[in-house]
Specification:
alpha+beta; two-stranded antiparallel ribbon; 27% helix; elongated; 10% strand; F-box domain-containing protein; disordered C terminus; 5 strands
Length: 177
């Protein structure tokens, strides 16, 4: 009898059937599930993204607390604290608050709501503090920018209205008013 040793084949993670990849995903907790999803495009598309309730749980893990990240209810992403208005990170909408599920990032607040053309969560004249700095949606030019003097105008429009030329942003064509 002839001794024919079988060639040794390597079994890699990606050579496993998709059912096993899905099963592996059910045993992983945050942040491991996220790291597993971003290993390659195949796994990323195979495994379902985290749901909003899973994101809310994820933001209370040691990893998320050390990175100071929060969950947004509309874009379904974990984002750094600097992407949220101060009011979204305090009191009832804080990580352990009863309305944490209603928290949304500034980007989603500026974006028009689904199904509407114009209406956004933050409208013209809205004041938004991010890390203690006042931002506004300017009542004049309707852009989002640094607030002027605690009012409802951006710095460009506020300075232009007072006769100071502000290059770049702001309404008008740079003329003195």
């Amino acid at each position: 009898m002839q001794d024919n040793p079988r060639p040794k084949t390597k079994t890699t993670l990606l050579s496993l059937p998709p059912e096993l990849h899905l099963l592996i995903g059910t045993y992983l907790r945050f942040p491991d599930i996220v790291f597993f999803r971003i290993t390659c495009a195949y796994v990323y598309t195979l495994l379902p993204p985290l749901t909003h309730s899973e994101l809310l749980i994820a933001e209370t893990t040691d990893y998320a607390l050390s990175k100071d990240i929060y969950a947004c209810r509309y874009c379904l992403r974990l984002r750094p604290a600097s992407c949220f208005a101060d009011r979204m990170r305090r009191r009832r909408r804080s990580k352990y608050g009863r309305d944490a599920a209603k928290r949304f990032c500034v980007e989603c607040g500026l974006r028009p709501r689904a199904g509407t053309e114009e209406e956004a969560r933050y409208g013209p004249g809205a004041q938004v503090r991010i890390d203690g700095v006042l931002y506004v949606i300017c009542i004049t030019c309707r852009t989002f920018g640094l607030g002027y003097g605690g009012g409802i105008e951006c710095q460009g429009c506020g300075l232009n209205a007072r006769g100071v030329e502000w290059p770049g942003r702001g309404c008008g064509d740079g003329r003195y008013y």
